[in-house]
Amino acid sequence: MAIIRIIAACLFITLCHAQNDTLRFKYEEFDDKLSVQLFTLNTSNSFSLHYGAENLTVDVEPNKKTTLGISVQYDIVFISLGFAPSFFADNKDNANSKMVSFALDVFPGRFVQHFDYYYQRGISLKSDNVNLYLENLKTMKIGGSTAFVFNRQFSYRAIALQNGKQTISAGTFAPTLSYYYTELNGKSQEGFGDKDHFVDVALSPTYYYNWVIAKNFMVSAGLGVGAGITLSDESSPRALYQASAIIGLGYNAERFFAGINSKGLASSHNASEDVAMDDSISYATAFVGYRFDAPKFLVKGKEKIKERIK
């Protein structure tokens, strides 16, 4: 019932906003620019296993978390690539640990298509007074989400200050379907075991709001709560509960932009009759960027694609 109330409330707010969209809400997009962004990112895919019979919780945490990265956006395509150098404080003294992340966003019309890839090697198991580092334990997550933005005058790209700028405050309801494949691989870790993997699929009613607090300054926020199913070889399909949140603050001029952004995705399901698993992706970044005039080969390529579509 709570989820139904959230959906109804989001729809009501969106419809109220939509009545004045044409007159009030505006945004600007920079599809003719090539945006280049440098960032530092603290991210990880962590797990918690709750054993009911033993009244025990084991946290599964990767040892490399802070990455440096670069992202590039032109028109509707946004690509980000990061790596975790050892000179960051929380990346040191982690034998053979590794963290690689990759993200891709595409914005066809009012759809938002997001892809994620996380690879982590070197995991710590933490419980009460125990902290065990397993250098050959690996995790891998691949997947993404598809969202539909109801409000035509809301700029999803402006949330992360990509090739979009919200000029007047606006919000939108954006139902989101997420789907992830996750693998815990202990084959190379002595005494740990084989691979465990599962697939999560969830539908979340989500609401975003871009609040323009001053010229070129904006605060963004979003919240989603949903449910779905988890599939694995170890058990029959099980219920999945999911929540997501995002908040950001930034400066966004025509050429230069900078800001901070934090978001998270948390899900929970029963891994077996007596074991519950929490799976979370945390993400916090600080970034600076600049929009360049797009090189001629990109402009010509874009024009050729448009001609073929016609």
UniProtKB/TrEMBL annotation:
It holds the Pfam family DUF4421. It comes from Flavobacterium arundinis. InterPro entries: DUF4421. Keywords: Signal. Residues 1-18 form the signal peptide. This is DUF4421 family protein.
